[in-house]
Write a structure and sequence with these properties.
Layout (H helix, E strand, L loop, with lengths): L1 H25 L2 E2 L2 E3 L9 E3 L2 E2 L1 H4 L5 H12 L3 H10 L5 H13 L9 H6 L1 H10 L14
Antiparallel strand pairs: 1-4, 2-3
Helix pairs in contact: 1-3, 1-4, 1-7, 4-5, 5-7
């Protein structure tokens, strides 16, 4: 049962992180702006552009792309760490803990990074908590 929980949470964390990253980069996000001539007058123009992050910041994507890439790709190490732990690796919990710390650090970003801390970090925490119980041959088949 622990093996299933550990594998499932690691895989879910990787998939959720990739989905959040794709959503932040490519889903259209709009904001409406109204321009008034003077206080008390009716709005002159209202614009509601609907652009994704890549379109809106195409010339200055560098820092955002670095963070979104790290927060989206680091959880991909968790399923491999679970497999390594099943084969007896002692370093696997450290890999999952590192991924969990990277995801928890995303709380500093209010532009969408907090989604990683809310949805991916708890899945990695669950994986981290069940990972040390795994090892080479720790769970055997039920006896008759």
């Amino acid at each position: 049962m622990r093996r299933r929980i550990c594998r499932g949470s690691a895989l879910a964390a990787a998939l959720v992180a990739l989905a959040i990253g794709a959503a932040i980069l490519f889903l259209p996000m709009g904001s409406c702006r109204s321009v008034t001539a003077r206080p008390g007058e009716a709005p002159v123009t209202t614009t509601c552009p609907s652009e994704n992050l890549v379109q809106r910041q195409r010339d200055s994507l560098f820092p955002a792309l670095l963070y979104i890439g790290a927060w989206s790709l680091v959880p991909l190490a968790a399923p491999f760490a679970v497999r390594a732990r099943e084969r007896g690796s002692e370093r696997a919990p450290g890999v999952v803990a590192g991924a969990m710390l990277v995801e928890a650090a995303s709380i500093i970003s209010l532009g969408g990074g907090f989604l990683y801390a809310l949805f991916v970090a708890p899945l990695l925490l669950l994986c981290f908590m069940t990972l040390p119980a795994l090892g080479a041959g720790t769970e055997s088949a039920p006896s008759a």
